[in-house]
């Protein structure tokens, strides 16, 4: 995922369908300089972590 799209998702009030390692996640913050994102899995909001943006994928919700 690119920096711009990750920032759009993080700032949007609409929940996007984003995955990291196959798990649905929420993007809290995007670090443009290091191209990383602060995320947590939707089923484990207490486990925050920072991951490279390239590990994030957005699923097209119209296909579901």
TrEMBL record:
Protein origin, superkingdom: Bacteria
Keywords noted in UniProt: Sporulation
Location(s) in or outside the cell: Spore core
InterPro entries reported in the protein's UniProt record: SASP_SspH (IPR012610)
Parts forming coiled coils: none
NCBIfam families: SASP_H
Family to which the UniProt record says this protein belongs: Belongs to the SspH family.
Protein name: Small acid-soluble spore protein H (Minor)
Organism of origin: Paenibacillus brasilensis
Species classification: Bacteria, Bacillati, Bacillota, Bacilli, Bacillales
């Amino acid at each position: 995922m690119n920096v711009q799209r990750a920032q759009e998702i993080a700032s949007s009030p609409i929940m996007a369908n984003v995955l990291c390692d196959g798990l649905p996640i929420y993007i809290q913050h995007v670090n443009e300089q290091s191209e990383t994102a602060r995320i947590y899995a939707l089923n484990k909001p207490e486990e925050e972590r920072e991951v490279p943006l390239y590990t994030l994928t957005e699923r097209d919700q119209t296909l579901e």
